[in-house]
Amino acid sequence: GPWVASFKIEWFVYAQTVAFGLTALIAFGLTRSYLSGKLVLSWNRPLLSAILKKSIPFSLVVLLMSIYTRIDAIMIERLLRNPSTNESIEQGNIYAAAYRLLDAINMICFLFAGLLLPMFARMLKNKENIRPLWKLSSSLMLVITVSFSIAVCFNAPEIMSLLMNVNYTPSMSDVLILLMIGFNSIGVIHIVGTLLTANGNLMAMNIVFVVGIAINICSNYFLILEYGAWGAAISTLITQSFVALAELELARRTFSEDLNGLFLFQVLVFILGVGGINWVLEALSTPWFLSFVLAGIFSVIWALITKVIDVRGILAIIKPKTV
User: Of 158, 195, 257, 290, which has the maximum CB count within 10 A?
Assistant: First the structure.
């Protein structure tokens, strides 16, 4: 529409800057209530040095994750650059449009992981049993990622057409489908990575991320040249799957936890059920937005029926502990 045509990228930068500023002010206001006395700025070099040394592994985790999740778009632009064609721009726009939706829903998972980090850290410090929280958080994340990704896959043409606005072709939806399949691995990474971070397994995680970057760059180099945005989506799926499996294995070795056979069966039944729900809605020619909403509602109900979400487990965790 006219508003989209007149939109300027600077507006997005301004909006994001305001959002970050408000977040910083709110965070300062909340933490200030826990501090007594007057705040005075001072330069304590030994303390600053100690903080920086302890922060480097955490910063490296964020940096490496940013590289292997963001380098795809850069490589599309560089590898497909051709003065005589607009292929790099066209393929970059397709990938960016599909990735925009992945970025948006990933914020929910990111916030969820942020809530889990202090909980896992406290429980590990107090040597408490993390299994109930681990199972509950994994189940909730699973319901979010599976329900959303399958619903998007069934409605990919309509959603991608909306994201692209113009110049849409049916093959573009394949890029979105691949990214949504990889979203399930991202959910695993958020949960397992948060637990490993709370336990201080940063060196091992960074090694996994470095290998992930190498896989991503190599696969992107060959796949983008051949398949464009679709190849970049395949590369992302491969990389995210590797990182998720590597972190799962690292967590298994660290905490001596094996996957429960019954839970895996429940997960399989849940996934098949969610697929069936979306198939029925599609067969009934339900409008895509209504289908998306109904699929979400029925998926949550199905999660409760299959006991992928354990209500008693949720109540046990949130119930105040008696001293």
Answer: 195
What one-letter code names the amino acid at 223?
A: L
Average pLDDT, rounded, for the chain: 87
How far, in whole angstroms, is CA 258 from its chain's centroid?
Answer: 24
Q: Give the pLDDT confidence of 57-83 residue by residue, as tens digits.
A: 888 888 888 888 889 989 998 888 876
Distance CA 145, CA 158 (A): 20
Q: How far apart are CA 58 and CA 194, in angstroms?
A: 11
Greater confidence, 257 or 115?
115
How many Cα neighbours within 13 Å face the side chain of 293?
Answer: 4
Residue 177 amino acid letter: I
pLDDT tier at 5, thresholds 50, 70, 90: low
Task: Report which residue type is found at 34.
Answer: Y
Q: At 216, is the pLDDT very low, low, confident or very high (cuts 50, 70, 90)?
A: very high
The pLDDT of residue 323: 46
Q: Is residue 229 part of a domain?
A: yes
Contact 95, 69 (CB under 8 A): no
Domain count for the chain, please give it: 1
Considering the domain boundaries, does residue 157 fall inside one?
A: yes
Return left, alpha or beta for 310; rule: phi > 0 is left, psi -120 to 50 is alpha, else beta: beta
Token code pair at residue 169: 């072709």
In tens, the pLDDT along 115-135 reads 899 999 999 999 888 888 888
Alpha-carbon distance 4 to 14, whole Å? 17
Measured between its terminal Cα atoms, the distance across the chain in Å is: 61
In a domain, 2, yes or no: no
Structural domain of 159: 56-259
76 neighbors 228 (Cβ within 8 angstroms)? yes
The verdict on residue 87 lying in a domain is yes
CA distance 314 to 307: 12
Please indicate whether residue 38 or residue 206 has the higher confidence score (pLDDT). Answer: 206
Give the position of tokens 């093959």: 171
Sign for the pseudo-dihedral over CA of 151, 152, 153, 157: positive
